[in-house]
Design goal:
Layout: E1 3-12, E2 15-25, E3 30-34, H1 41-49, E4 56-61, E5 64-65, H2 71-74, E6 76-79, H3 91-100, H4 110-123, H5 139-152, E7 157-161, H6 169-186, E8 189-194, H7 197-203, E9 206-211, E10 214-219, H8 221-226, H9 231-236, E11 241-248, E12 251-254, E13 263-268, E14 273-276, E15 285-293, E16 298-305, E17 310-317, H10 318-324, E18 331-336, E19 340-342
Parallel strand pairs: 3-8, 3-9, 6-7, 7-8
Antiparallel strand pairs: 1-2, 1-4, 4-5, 9-10, 11-12, 11-13, 13-19, 14-18, 15-16, 15-18, 16-17
Helix pairs in contact: 3-4, 3-5, 4-5
Length: about 350
Amino acid sequence: MSIQIKGVSKTFGSFEALKNINLDIQTGELVALLGPSGSGKTSLLRIIAGLEEADDGVIFFGNEEITHIRTTERKVGFVFQHYALFKHMTVFDNVAYGLRVRSKRERPSKKDIKKKVTELLSLVKLEAFADRYPAQLSGGQRQRVALARALAVEPKVLLLDEPFGALDAKVRKELRRWLRRLHDEFHITSIFVTHDQEEALDVANRIVVMNEGRIEQIGSPEEVYEQPNSPFVYDFLGNVNVFHGRLEDGQWRNGNQADTEQQALAYVRPHDIVIEREKPTEDAVEAKVIHVHAVGRTVHIELKEEKAERFLEAELPKEQYRELNIQTGETVFVRPNQLKVFVPADFSI
């Protein structure tokens, strides 16, 4: 089921939660709405679900406009961060609930409900827990029950609001892997909200980066990470170093000058920082090594640029770090290997 969102806006009092949102989601896509708190991602998800109504704009599921259709008629599955399971019901009854409350005309037989629920519990690896209550399950198990319950009604669209936010890091990683496999098997058009960059990059086919009620960028995980179209996207998607410089004949040069119209910021990922003992070019920055974290295959190095009182981060393969043999307290020279230049309207960043 494809989804079209056209010109959707939403205000809560004087707060503009969404500002003219336009978004096309293809059938079978797994799309992440990614952004900080207050960016509008949950408001957009709730409007798609019918739990909130847009002030302006329209929404289509396929060729059908569903802007004013009730939630119960949209055939969406919704998974909340805190599971929202019925505490007094067993796992089996929680998953069966959406089927049992259908009208008589649409309700499956008891035999068909049992078969469907059993299949879903097998899918989420919880068939042995059918008679347990939510309080007897771990957080990861409860979230899998919530997903099975959402799938039981055979939704056209699966919506997930911070589905793994309440879980610890190891369980989140396991469930992310499981969600990818589940999506590959069911091919349900799915949208999930997250503020976790790693989660979005790991799971989604496409990422919609949101900020202050607007869409900043839409693209594949590789596109938004490797080709960010704004300082916000660059900064939000992973660690970044910012070098203040200037443009000269279309080339970025480190260091400011009086002509503010030529000033520019260079954004550089830690793995694109080069560290050298001798100053290779005039653009190289002198910095002091203040911390080295050498656990694992990649060595994380924190440096301080003395002149600008600015901290920098670099990542080196362990072999390269050993060759350099740099120590905490040493002064070295750093320069960007790959960078993205922005000329901000407000250079006070």
